[in-house]
């Protein structure tokens, strides 16, 4: 093909063996691939009624539309697609193309003459009752319905466009087209031989499967690299397909580099193609290229105004409308890349409520359900962080759901469910969060996407997977957790943004290494950072970590102000689970300070939410603390009542040990069996004491020992 390209270097109508017909007012041109499609259509018209089965006819009809609208593909790929639909017809097409490519130039000319004759004469082959219509009739019934008429029209227009484009060519252009056809055929034959060799050399089923996957990838790359310039309809189909894939399932779209290469090829032949600039903008967002995305976005609106499309559809205000949308999109672009000097809503939270409410009212007034729903979602998110009650937030989301289902806004349905999952997680209701996350993951997309693509790679899908992974981790469901992480790593890991939990994890590691001063400095910096960001949930978590640091440093009195501040924040913002965890920590502080009766009364307030919605480890900690408080309170009881309290404590310790065993926390199991051995010794149960003592000894030898027990009395 290189020689063809060099010989046509100064010819504006030819590139890489492709004959352009746009200069003659026709929005299509002849390529070797389209000649092969013409051969397929011609063979279909020549095939009799009983030559192929009904199922084969259906598959061929389903194949034709993407062949006519899609970009050029290799000949071997075309053979494969036709063979999957109708092997007999694939053989006929292959023979016709072989005879034409290995023959002479007059064979190709005769082929187009025969196509022209099919539209002329007293009894033309292509008309309403011709054999071509028979293929649709067999698929849809005895009469061609109005809904399927465009498919027949598209075939007829394709034939007519190709015939007109070919008739406008000079002899030299016809010769170069025939040379390109020969090269196209030779490349296809070479690929077919390679495919056959690969199948013959494969030894087992696993190797065959692997080689087939590699072959499929190479074919797709070849299609991208060797396809010539697209016609207007092919370009529109390509852009709409890739835009839909970027929106719904990015993994099935072309890679950023391959897609940009195709877009550059489109823009080389039509620089004013506005839609191609916009898809280039979306593609550059995938790789976080702020310069190229801004460049493409500005070019899109420049071309949109130059075409005059906006002024025609919107009257005299069309240009101004386009410029307003350009400014809005540019502001959204800068916000996405973190250029917050242009961001207003995040700077004044009080003003943001007013602006969002105003935007929702305006959207409802002008009948814009998509914008209205987005505004409601933003309001719900802000009010959740402000501590509004869950029932009011759910009522607002219910109103937005009515808009989604009424207008079939499937993307916003997913966002709404993900929002509900996050709200229930924020308020500590893990059961409700689990239900919403599983509902989102099990839902099929309501939006029809090419090739059966479902919306399983959206941001809401990633959020649901993250919440589900956390919920499974809390309940120690390892297999389910592995499944969630596999989904994240394979499909949507790039969408998960980092957050401040990294600092907390580092502090926990330092604390476990007994580096208390370093952990305290890190937690103080993190606390200031979270307070500046007004991230209440993280502020409470850091306060609890600081309080635990003080306990380990034998300073429980200093931890009390931290705990009271955390409790006040969790109550103010209605974070029920964090409030229960804070009460649990307060009870532990009271136990250390020697007031176990008050600690036990506090535990009765916090134990129910923890057992209902808490993590397995938190449940074990709560039951262990209850047992400690029961033992400490029993010190002042008389002997019968004390024995009863110790028996109850042993039962709670058994329950705590079961929870710790689920998460394989051997260090805490060691503490539990030590405590049980002491209790059994007090009750005079020697056999049970010895069993617990033996288990403690095994675990103590297996595990390292750090520090001293915080409670060393019964």
Automatic annotation (TrEMBL):
Its main location: cytoplasm. The keyword Cytoplasm applies. CDD domains: Apc5_N. Transmembrane segments: none annotated. Pathway: Protein modification; protein ubiquitination. Residues 277-340 form the Anaphase-promoting complex subunit domain. Keywords: Cell cycle, Cell division, Cytoplasm, Cytoskeleton, Mitosis, Nucleus, Phosphoprotein, Repeat, TPR repeat, Ubl conjugation pathway. Pfam families: ANAPC5 (PF12862), Apc5_N (PF21371). GO terms for cellular component: anaphase-promoting complex; spindle. It is found in: Cytoplasm, Cytoskeleton, Spindle; Nucleus. Signal peptide: none annotated. The keyword Ribosomal protein does not apply. InterPro entries: Apc5 (IPR037679), Apc5_dom (IPR026000), Apc5_N (IPR048968), TPR-like_helical_dom_sf (IPR011990). Residues 30-136, 155-191 form the Anaphase-promoting complex subunit 5 N-terminal domain. It comes from the Eukaryota. Belongs to the APC5 family. PANTHER family: ANAPHASE-PROMOTING COMPLEX SUBUNIT 5 (PTHR12830). Component of the anaphase promoting complex/cyclosome (APC/C), a cell cycle-regulated E3 ubiquitin ligase that controls progression through mitosis and the G1 phase of the cell cycle. The APC/C complex acts by mediating ubiquitination and subsequent degradation of target proteins: it mainly mediates the formation of 'Lys-11'-linked polyubiquitin chains and, to a lower extent, the formation of 'Lys-48'- and 'Lys-63'-linked polyubiquitin chains. The APC/C complex catalyzes assembly of branched 'Lys-11'-/'Lys-48'-linked branched ubiquitin chains on target proteins. The mammalian APC/C is composed at least of 14 distinct subunits ANAPC1, ANAPC2, CDC27/APC3, ANAPC4, ANAPC5, CDC16/APC6, ANAPC7, CDC23/APC8, ANAPC10, ANAPC11, CDC26/APC12, ANAPC13, ANAPC15 and ANAPC16 that assemble into a complex of at least 19 chains with a combined molecular mass of around 1.2 MDa; APC/C interacts with FZR1 and FBXO5. This is Anaphase-promoting complex subunit 5. It comes from Macaca fascicularis.
């Amino acid at each position: 093909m290189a020689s063809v390209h060099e010989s046509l270097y100064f010819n504006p109508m030819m590139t890489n063996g492709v004959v352009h017909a746009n200069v003659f007012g026709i929005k299509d041109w002849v390529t070797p691939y389209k000649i092969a499609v013409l051969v397929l259509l011609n063979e279909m018209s020549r095939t009799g009624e009983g030559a192929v089965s009904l199922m084969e006819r259906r598959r061929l009809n389903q194949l034709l539309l993407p062949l006519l609208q899609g970009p050029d593909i290799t000949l071997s790929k075309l053979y494969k697609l036709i063979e999957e639909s109708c092997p007999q017809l694939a053989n006929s097409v292959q023979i016709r193309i072989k005879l034409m490519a290995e023959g002479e130039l007059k064979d190709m000319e005769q082929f187009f003459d025969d196509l022209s004759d099919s539209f002329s004469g007293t009894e033309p082959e292509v008309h309403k009752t011709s054999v071509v219509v028979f293929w649709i009739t067999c698929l849809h019934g005895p009469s061609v319905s109005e809904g399927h008429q465009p498919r027949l029209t598209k075939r007829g227009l394709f034939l007519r466009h190709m015939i007109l484009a070919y008739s406008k060519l000079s002899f030299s252009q016809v010769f170069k087209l025939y040379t390109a056809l020969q090269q196209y055929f030779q490349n296809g034959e070479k690929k077919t031989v390679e495919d056959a060799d690969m199948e013959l050399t494969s030894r087992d089923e696993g190797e065959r499967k692997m080689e087939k996957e590699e072959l499929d990838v190479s074919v797709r790359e070849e299609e991208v690299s060797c396809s010539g310039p697209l016609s207007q309809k092919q370009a529109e189909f390509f852009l709409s397909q890739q835009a839909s894939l970027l929106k719904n399932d990015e993994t099935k779209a072309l890679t950023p580099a391959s897609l940009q290469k195709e877009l550059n090829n489109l823009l080389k032949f039509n620089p004013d193609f506005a839609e191609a600039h916009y898809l280039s903008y979306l593609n550059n967002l995938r790789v976080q290229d702020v310069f190229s995305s801004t460049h493409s976005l500005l070019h899109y609106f420049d071309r949109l105004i130059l075409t005059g499309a906006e002024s025609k559809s919107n009257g005299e205000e069309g240009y101004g409308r386009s410029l307003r949308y350009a400014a809005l999109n540019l502001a959204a672009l800068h916000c996405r890349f973190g250029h917050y000097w242009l961001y207003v809503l995040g700077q004044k939270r009080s003003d943001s409520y007013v602006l969002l409410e105003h935007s929702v009212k305006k959207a409802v007034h002008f009948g814009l359900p998509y914008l209205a729903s987005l505004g409601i979602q933003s309001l719900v998110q802000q009010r959740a962080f402000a501590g509004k009650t869950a029932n009011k937030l759910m009522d607002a989301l219910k109103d937005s759901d009515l808009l989604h289902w009424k207008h079939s806004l499937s993307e916003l349905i997913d966002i709404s469910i993900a929002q509900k999952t996050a709200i229930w997680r924020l308020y500590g209701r893990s059961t409700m969060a689990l239900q919403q996350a599983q509902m989102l993951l099990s839902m099929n997309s309501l939006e029809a996407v090419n090739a059966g693509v479902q919306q399983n790679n959206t941001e809401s899908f990633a959020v649901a997977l993250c919440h589900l992974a956390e919920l499974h981790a809390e309940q120690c469901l390892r297999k389910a957790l592995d499944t969630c992480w596999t989904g994240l790593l394979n499909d949507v890991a790039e969408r998960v943004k980092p957050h401040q939990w990294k600092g907390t994890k580092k502090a926990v590691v330092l604390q476990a290494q007994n580096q208390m001063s370093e952990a305290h400095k890190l937690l103080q910096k993190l606390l200031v950072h979270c307070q500046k960001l007004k991230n209440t949930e993280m502020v409470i978590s850091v306060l609890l970590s600081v309080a635990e640091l003080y306990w380990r440093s034998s300073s429980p009195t200093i931890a009390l102000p931290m705990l009271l501040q955390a409790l006040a924040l969790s109550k103010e913002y209605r974070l029920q689970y964090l409030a229960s965890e804070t009460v649990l920590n307060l009870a532990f502080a009271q136990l250390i300070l020697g007031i176990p009766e008050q600690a036990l009364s506090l535990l009765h307030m916090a134990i129910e939410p923890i057992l209902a919605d808490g993590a397995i480890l938190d449940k074990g900690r709560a039951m262990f603390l209850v047992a400690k408080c029961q033992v400490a309170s029993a010190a002042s009881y008389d002997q019968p009542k004390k024995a009863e309290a110790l028996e109850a404590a042993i039962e709670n310790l058994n329950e705590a040990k079961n929870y710790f065993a689920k998460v394989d926390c051997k260090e805490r199991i060691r503490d539990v069996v030590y405590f049980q051995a002491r209790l059994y010794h007090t009750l005079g149960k020697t056999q049970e004491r010895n069993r617990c003592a033996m288990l403690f000894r095994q675990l103590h030898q297996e595990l390292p020992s750090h520090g001293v027990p915080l409670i060393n009395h019964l």
